[in-house]
C-alpha cells in the first residue's frame, strides 16, 4: 500500500475523521504489511482467499440494513434516547431561539422513499413544494451520496445548495435564493484528481457484478456505489468477492457501507461533515454562536455530519429510521412522510413569526 494511504488512513482513524466501524476495506496489493495496513487490522486482506474479510463484510452489510427491531426493549430504550423530532418540536424551537436555522437534508430515505431501482427514487410533488417553501425561509442544502447532477435533477429546485458524492461536489444556488452570499457561484470539488480512477473502477465493477443477479453499480462522479437491495442475501458474499477483486488493485480508494449499498470512495479527509462545515463557512456562519444547523439524514454517511454538530454542541442531527441504530443524532423521525411533516411545521412557524 502506498505511502499516501498510510498517512491519510492513519491520520483519519487517529483523529476520528473515520472510525474502524465505518471503513470495510482499503484497496491495495495482497500481502501488504505497511504501517497503514497494520492500523486497519479489521480490514487486512492477506488471509487466504479473503474468507474472513468477506464474512466481516457480509455481517456489516446485514447490520447496516436492518429490516426489523432487535427487540422491543432495545427499541423502546433507543426511542427514549433519540425521541421523535415531531413530539419534541417545541423543545427544538426553544433550542434555536434567537439563532439562524440552516437546513441540511439527505435525499434517499429522507426526502424520497428507498426504492429497489435507485434511478427511480423520485420525491413527491408535495415534498418538493415543502422543500421549496423551506428554502424560502432558511438557507437549505441537499447533501447526498448521489452525483450532484443526478440529485439536482430529482429535486428540481434551483434555489438550493447541492452537495453530491458525499459532499465532494458542492455547488451553490443557480437562481432564486435570497440566502446566497454575493454573486459568486459556489463550487467545491476536493477530489477532482480521483475522477479518472473512479470512472475506471466503475467500469470494472459493472463487468464484475454482472454475475450477481440484482446488483446495480452507479457512477456518482467522485465515488461509485454498488447497490444490493435487489440481491438475494445468499448472494451477498458473491457480490463482496467481486467488489474486493476490483478494489484490491486501488490503494487510494476505500470501501464504506450504507443502507444496502457499498460505497467506493477516495481516501481523503472529506465527508458530509466537512461539507456541512464548508457550507456554513460559505454562508458566513463559521465560528458563529447564533447559527442553528439542523441536519436530517438516514444513512451511515450522515453520521459524519451528526458527529460534527454533537461535538460542537451546535444545532442538532435527526436520524430517519424505523429501527434502533447507533447514532450521533439527537432526535429521530421514522420515514420521509414524517420528515415532510417536520419541515412543514418549521415553515409554518417561520411564516407566523414573519407575519406572512
TrEMBL record:
Signal peptide, first to last residue: none
Reaction(s) catalysed (UniProt annotation): alpha,alpha-trehalose 6-phosphate + H2O = alpha,alpha-trehalose + phosphate
CDD domains in the record, alphabetically?
HAD_TPP
What protein name applies here? Trehalose 6-phosphate phosphatase
Q: Does the keyword Zinc-finger apply?
A: no
Query: Which cofactors go with this protein?
Result: a divalent metal cation
Report the family membership: Belongs to the trehalose phosphatase family.
- Name the Pfam families on file: Trehalose_PPase
Presence of keyword Hydrolase: yes
Quote the gene name from the UniProt entry. Answer: LOC104751861
What top-level class of enzyme does the UniProt entry assign?
hydrolase
Quote the EC number. Answer: 3.1.3.12
